Amino acid sequence: MIWVIWHARNKIIFEDLCPRASNAITFVLAAIREANPLVRGGMDGSVSELSIARSLGVPSHPHRRRVPIFVRWRPPQAGWYKANIDGSVSSAPGYMYAGVIFRNSRGFFAGALYTRTGRGFPLEAKLVAILHSIIYAHAQGWRFLWVESDSSLIVDTVQKMNPLIPWRLRGMWCRAMLTTFDMMIMYSHIFREANQAADCLAKLHTNVVWQGLCPDFLLHFLYGDMHSEYFHFS
Hints:
By secondary structure, this protein is α/β, with parallel strands linked by helices.
């Protein structure tokens, strides 16, 4: 493609000719089709990639068949509260941002928080969000808590009480674990498609806690979680 542009430029400058764009496009497409048998890579099989391959007139070569997984947010049982968490960083490493949204057994908004905490990496930010969810729930008197994250690694870490907690988070970790002695907590993984409210919170840029009424920008996600069904392609 670069050669075609360069060749057309030379025609204009040195030969005072104006090549037709359609001819250049035809040449590029023919070159792509001719080079296709030499390609040894594969595709993820996404809708956008398949559409591009079709428009170029070349066969698609997906790595493997993508299997859709049904995903849906589920409320906790009566008497429990559910915290969906997520974390993000401004860079790697960078400032850590933690977002948590709490809902009751009817799926109604019970509270939310967003905070910026020190510097770290993405997985550490998600761990900070979990620890904040435990500390906040305990302060509210909620003794039955279901914590859900879109990071299976972080869920596995807290379930197994992994001792390899970064030293800069040890103080917060110990504080959160001390509150769990009179709490019952369960952890689970959920795909990002059904964790959008927490994902949205983790991308804010201010320290804030909401109690009582749900902020307007979260209403769309709450409604979607209660009434929508998603598919995750593995």
